[in-house]
């Protein structure tokens, strides 16, 4: 059972009040009593809640409750996708759609950390500047620039090694023009709608790879949870991954309503936090 202090829908953090005998299987010591909860469990609607032990990640030294609540889900997504879906390495050139969002900013930082060149797409100059501050080398303003032409210009006509696309339907077809031979397309979201059915023979032209992974299937066993959980906390505590929080809101009807309005308004960057109580 957990007493929450910070929350964003089903991603939250707080004090562990009671734990079962199976909790030790996750590989973390019981002395760590502050945990971060991930998606896949019921959304938080009170300040005390229960959750399966496998969804609990004890927060490591040097990581604040605020950063854990805001960043754990998307940090795990970025880290697992960069290791399992496509191994981003030094010298790679990758494209991140909607790079100024919460996941996009984390991916840009992580890619820059390993020595990759980051191309991102976003909608405004303000978001482009934010993306550059978080590691993006080139940012394309898709409302006024042709993404395919700009990517091919930046890469001298070769295309990118990998595309991480959280947009979905609206950008799917163009991605095949952006990728180089033996490139990888990682579909990470459906912001514009689900990708329609397409013929697999489309991959044959450049020997491309296509994945539609979910982080939950990369963090199933206790060993996987322990490995990726520790890696995320190390990256946060060392400053490699900086969690961008747009705003904190009070845990009131008005506060939650305002957070929802700001979120769907499309003008935010990074994460929105609902603060249930002081830690």
Automatic annotation (TrEMBL):
An annotated GO cellular component: cytosol
Keyword terms: NADP, Oxidoreductase
GO molecular function, one term: mRNA 3'-UTR AU-rich region binding
Source superkingdom: Eukaryota
Domain Enoyl reductase (ER): 5-274
Family matches, as SMART domains: PKS_ER (SM00829)
Pfam families on file: ADH_zinc_N (PF00107)
Protein name as it appears in the record: Probable quinone oxidoreductase
Chain's gene name: ZTA1
């Amino acid at each position: 059972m957990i007493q929450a202090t910070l929350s964003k829908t089903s991603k939250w953090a707080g004090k562990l009040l009671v734990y079962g005998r199976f909790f030790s299987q996750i590989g973390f010591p019981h002395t760590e009593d502050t945990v971060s909860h991930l998606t896949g469990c019921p959304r938080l609607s009170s300040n005390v809640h229960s959750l399966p032990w496998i969804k609990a990640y004890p927060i490591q030294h040097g990581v604040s409750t605020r950063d854990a609540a805001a960043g754990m889900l998307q940090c795990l997504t970025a880290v697992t996708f960069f290791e399992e879906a496509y191994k981003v390495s030094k010298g790679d050139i990758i494209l991140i759609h909607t790079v100024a969002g919460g996941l996009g900013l984390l991916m840009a930082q992580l890619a820059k950390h390993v020595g990759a060149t980051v191309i991102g797409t976003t909608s405004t100059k303000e978001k482009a500047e934010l993306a550059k501050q978080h590691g993006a080398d080139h940012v394309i303003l898709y409302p006024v620039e042709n993404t395919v032409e700009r990517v091919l210009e930046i890469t001298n006509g070769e295309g990118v090694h990998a595309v991480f696309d959280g947009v979905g339907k609206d950008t799917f077809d163009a991605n095949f023009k952006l990728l180089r031979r033996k490139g990888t397309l990682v579909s990470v979201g459906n912001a514009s709608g689900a990708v329609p059915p397409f013929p697999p023979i489309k991959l044959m032209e450049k020997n491309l790879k296509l994945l539609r992974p979910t982080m939950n299937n990369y963090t199933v066993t206790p060993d996987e949870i322990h490995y990726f959980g520790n890696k995320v906390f190390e990256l946060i505590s060392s400053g490699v991954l900086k969690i961008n929080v747009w705003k904190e809101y009070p845990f009131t009807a008005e506060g939650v309503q305002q957070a929802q309005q700001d979120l769907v308004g499309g003008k935010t960057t990074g994460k929105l936090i609902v603060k249930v109580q002081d830690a």
